[in-house]
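Internal tracking record. Fields below are filled automatically when a chain is submitted to the structure queue. Please do not edit lines marked as system-generated. If the sequence contains nonstandard residues, flag them in the REMARKS field before resubmitting.
Queue: standard
Priority: normal
Entity type: single polypeptide chain
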Amino acid sequence: KKRGPKNEPADHALGRSKGGFGTKLHLLCDGAGLPLNAMLLAGQAHESTQFEELASSAAIRRPSGQTRWRPRRMGADKAYHAQRIRHWLRAQGIGAVIPPRASRAKKRRVGRPFSYNKERYCERNVIERSIGWLKECRSLATRFEKLAAHYLGMVQVAIIERYLCLLYTSPSPRDRTR
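SYSTEM-GENERATED OUTPUT FOLLOWS
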């Protein structure tokens, strides 16, 4: 029997996709682009399969000291457009900012039409910038680690580094006037 981390997937979160052999990094961020949680999937796995687990995995500490477990709204790209996800968000009291896929938007369907706030969807770029910032770390962009648990640990170290940079950098001149 092989030894290793207990939470290690059998495929080491590696798989073949259109982009080649690799790993998908799923990141949950707040509205300012600060990472709250990360998850790894194999390249061939669809993003929406782990949505509920990732969305319910982080708590946000409010200035009042209370913990908020659910955001008011959650934005995602077209890959997360699924009825199962929309029902889960509605049951949790979270507003969905997910555009319909082009194939779904053209078809006329019975029931309530899909809608989303286009202005709020434009704010989704904070997650893309946050992933871009993480990919600037060479070990994350190339995945030197064989085990998924070790790679996820490197992602978490990069997130901690990001928090430390934000904590210990001098405030901008704009912040000093407030």
